[in-house]
Structure formats: structure tokens, C-alpha cells
Amino acid sequence: MDGLLALILAACGIAGLSSSVKIINQGNEALVERLGSYNKKLKPGLNFVMPFVDNVAYRETIREKVLDIPPQPSITKDNVSITVDAVVYWRIVDMEKAYYKVQNLHAAMVNLVLTQIRAEMGKLELDETFTARSQINETLLHELDVATDPWGVKVTRVELRDIVPSKAVQESMELQMSAERRKRAAILTSEGEREAAVNSARGKAEAQVLEAEASQKATILAAEADQKARILQAQAERQSQVLKAQATAEAVNIITQALKHDPRAAEAGQVFLALGYLNTTSEIGRSNSSKVMFMDPASIPAALQGMLSLVDEKKG
What we know:
three-stranded antiparallel sheet; alpha+beta; single chain; Tetrahydropterin Synthase, Chain A; 8 helices; elongated; about 20% strand
């Protein structure tokens, strides 16, 4: 009998010892109640509680969790029926509030998210629900975070996945989009034709301007070339006249020197003057302009006689 009692006591001791040891995994927390009232919170690792008095009432993870919201019908501001589904990322930051402030936290979160989504969709028109999705996500995140704060929950992210209008609305949207595409195509075609016409007119105008500039440059170059040719011709004629004058001056100088040494050189001077006179009259005769010449007949025989005398002397 004593052995049986000892065995019972040993079994009770082992059971009490095993029930007093609680191991909490990393990322989890647990709430302990003592005689029905909250006592303490167990952290990850090895924890001890009083057997038969303490009870682990709630054990849950504090890691971030995903709440998948199924598609739900909503009505937009312009009375269009749409179906919306979303995904919410959240985590428990206060285990006591999550257990004692709300019953069935998961169901409360789902209903709260659905209510907020329908409320936000009712504030927007159909077109705005597609273009302002990021703004809707931010608004839902703020409102859900504020609403779930008393439950010890932190909402970290809200994403609307699909916004699907009804079939009739989809058909109307497709017709509208088709008409919009045709309108844009017509506008682009007309703009292209207008741009092509503008470019063509601009090209013709530029070509005419370039042609006029080229013609003007050619005229200027031709005038400059003609002017240079005339200048060169005038310079050549002047140089020719200068050379002739220098030759005449040298001839006169030679005759003058000859007269100093030989009086008969006067006849040669007369010959030279007669030749110059004849050359001058020949040049005047070749000119195209009208001219009148006055000659002294008495001077010609004397000049010719002088020339003949010189020739006879050279032959003798």
C-alpha cells in the first residue's frame, strides 16, 4: 500500500513537473492565466509555470501574416457594380490586446477589411478605381491600421489585386476603348498628314532660298571676276604704255646724246620723229571710234628725205 502511494505521488510529481515546463518557439508568444485571470506572457525559449494553477490560454505567432480577402461585390460612386479582392499583410504587436480585446481576431479582420474596401469603392467612380489604385491602397492601409490598433494589430500593407466590372460594363468599356482607339488613330493620321505638308512646304521654301542664294553668289562671283579682268587689262595697258613711254624716253635720250657728238644725227632724229608720227596715226586709225587727223604735208617729204640720205650713207 505504501509503495502504491509512493508510485502515485511520483507520477503526480512527474506530471506536475512536466506541466510546469513550457517551451515557446522563436517568433511565438503565449499568454498564461492563473485561476482564470491573466497572469503573464511567455517569451520564446524555456519557461516555467505553476502546475495545476497556471494555464496557457493563448499561443500565437508575432510574425507577419497574410490575410487573403475573397472577391466581394461593391458599388462605385456612379452606381457601377464591380468585384474587388485584396490581400492584407499584418502582425500582432500586443498579444494581450489581440486575445482579450476582440473575440475571433481573424474573422474581425476579414469583416473590417471588406467594410473598408466597400466604403472606399463607394467614394470613387469606375474610372478612378483603375487609375487611383495606389491611392486606394494607401487610404485602406491608414484606416485599417487605425481601426485595428485597439486589437494590438499592426497592418503593414494592403494591396488590391483585381477590380472586375460586371459583364455589361466590360462590353461597354470595350466599345468605348475601340472608339477611343479609332479617334486617336484618326487624329494621328491627320497630324501626320499636316506635318508632312508642313515639311514639304518648308523644304520647297528652303530649296528656293538656297537656289536664290546660289544664283546671287554666282552673279556676285561673275561680277567680281569681270571686275578683276578689267582691272588686270587696265593694268596691262598701263604697263604697256609705261614701257612704250620708257622706250621713247630712252630713244630720245640716245638721240640727244648723239646730237652732242654728231650734228648729222639730227636727220636721224627727224626720222625717229617721223616714225613715231606714223605709228601714232596707225594706232588712231585702228580705233573703232570716229576720228579726224590733221597732218602737215611739208614735214613728210623732209622726213622721208632724211631717211633716204641715211640709207644712202649706209650703203656707200
